[in-house]
Design a protein that fits this description.
Layout lengths: L2 H11 L3 H6 L6 E2 L27 E7 L13 E8 L18 H7 L3 H10 L7 H11 L12 E2 L5 H15 L3 H6 L9 E4 H9 L7 E5 L2 E12 L6 E4 L12 E3 L13 E2 L17 E4 L1 E4 L2 E6 L5 E2 L7 E6 L2 E6 L2 E6 L2 E5 L9 E3 L2 E3 L6 E3 L18 E5 L2 E2 L1
Parallel strand pairs: 5-10
Antiparallel strand pairs: 1-4, 2-3, 2-7, 5-9, 6-7, 7-8, 11-15, 11-23, 12-13, 12-22, 13-14, 15-16, 16-17, 17-18, 19-20, 21-22
């Protein structure tokens, strides 16, 4: 953090929040960045993090396809966010509490960016209808971790101008990536009655940019796309260069549903455009039924299991769980109590009164249709690792072994 940033923070932190919220954003000048290496491609340390994104040098532009409830236009994907990753699949989050805001709409309006705000109101949508909270979350979690957008990187900095720059850049990138058209050009259009090979979807999305993408599914339905970039210079003024994915991999089954945002599903059988029956779609219980253990797979091999509190343990005896059918899925109970995903973390205890309803996808435990779970690192010895549904450094899946 630069000295100029600390001085500005000291000055602005003494101002009332209401005054900061209503301050007109006067565009200061971003850092000039000639001859800057491409992020994540440097061979020596780069000291100037106003011109070189570090450690978050891998930028992801992520998009949603929400159908239940539907959000955004019927013929367009919507913005999820712009995320800095650390070039190795890990990432930082919530990097500056002093710059977490609860007035993104007011900040953008004060900057005179009514066109940006209008576009966001159409294409950067929250499926629960609370766009403002969604925008705040994206800035607070991801925007504050972009080094080239720190206040100290601007001459004549005006409070919150980097917030506007973050949303403007995300929208500008989004406008260059028409996922709906990319897919439609290869004959992949939303359908209630046809599934598409995930490989074909990925090929269609890779073709216009020359690099692969990551696709994500929930309940066997195409839900999200991640586009990856390295950046030469700052996020606000630099060059975004498409690059290969890193970190969490695509989690979609072999054949994927790409549902329309409107209309009523017919009562006909779903067929696959590949000519084979759809596979990997969620099954309410099988094989999770009765009593069994929850073995963990990470890095392509089985390594330990989930013990009674819901944590990952690689040594010792596996805990016995009971899987009980419930609604469209099943609940899990250990000797500690019922299991739930609370604050993004798997927990099993007597204090859980509202257990999570899980499903099974390709014989793996699934939460909201996704079989990927995460932790900061693989536990060793007597260490237990908390299991999260939010992306972290280590990806794992959880199976079932009947007892």
């Amino acid at each position: 953090m630069s000295l100029s940033y600390k001085i500005r923070q000291a000055l602005t932190s003494s101002l009332p929040a209401a005054l900061l919220a209503s301050t007109t954003v006067l565009a200061g000048t971003p850092a000039s960045c000639p001859n800057t290496p491409l992020s994540c491609k440097n061979t020596t340390a780069i000291a100037d993090t106003c011109c070189f994104n570090a450690p978050g040098g891998l930028l992801l532009l992520t998009q949603f396809w929400d159908t239940n409830p539907p959000t955004g236009p019927d013929d367009s994907w919507t913005v999820h966010g712009l995320w800095p990753d650390n070039c190795d699949g890990t990432y930082e989050q919530y990097c500056d509490k002093s710059r977490e805001y609860d007035n993104v709409t007011a900040i953008i309006s004060a900057a005179g960016k009514t066109d940006l705000l209008s576009y966001m109101n159409k294409y950067w949508k929250d499926y629960q209808g609370d766009d403002e909270s969604f925008w705040e979350h994206e800035w607070d979690k991801h925007g504050t971790c972009i080094s080239t957008l720190e206040p100290g990187c601007y001459d004549n900095y005006s409070p919150q101008q980097e917030v506007v720059a973050y949303f403007q850049k995300a929208v500008d990138l989004f406008k260059t990536i028409d996922s709906y058209s990319f897919l439609a050009a290869k004959g992949i259009t939303p359908s209630f009655t046809t599934t598409y090979p995930s490989a074909s979807i990925m090929e269609a999305l890779a073709a216009p940019r020359g690099v692969e993408v990551t696709i994500r599914c929930r309940n066997g339905e195409l839900d999200e796309i991640w586009y990856f970039y390295n950046v030469r210079g700052s996020v606000e003024t630099g060059e975004f260069v498409p690059t290969q994915p890193d970190g969490a991999k695509s989690n979609c089954p072999t054949d994927v549903k790409y549902l329309p945002k409107t209309g009523t599903p017919p009562s006909t059988t779903v067929t696959s455009s590949s000519g084979t029956p759809p596979t990997g779609t969620p099954t309410p219980g099988s094989p999770f039924s009765g009593r069994g253990t929850l073995p963990v797979t990470s890095g392509g091999k089985t390594n330990g299991c989930i013990i009674s509190g819901g944590t990952w343990y690689t040594t010792g005896t596996c805990a016995t769980y009971t899987a009980t059918a419930s609604g469209d899925g099943f609940s899990l109970t250990s000797s500690k109590g019922k299991c739930a995903v609370s604050n993004s973390v798997l927990t099993c205890s007597a204090s859980v009164t509202d257990p999570t309803i899980f499903t099974a996808v390709a014989d793996k435990l699934a939460y909201d249709g996704a079989t990927d779970f995460y932790t900061n690192s693989v536990p060793t010895g007597s260490v237990q690792a908390a299991i999260s549904v939010q992306q972290q450094a280590t990806t794992l899946s959880i199976g079932w072994k009947s007892s």
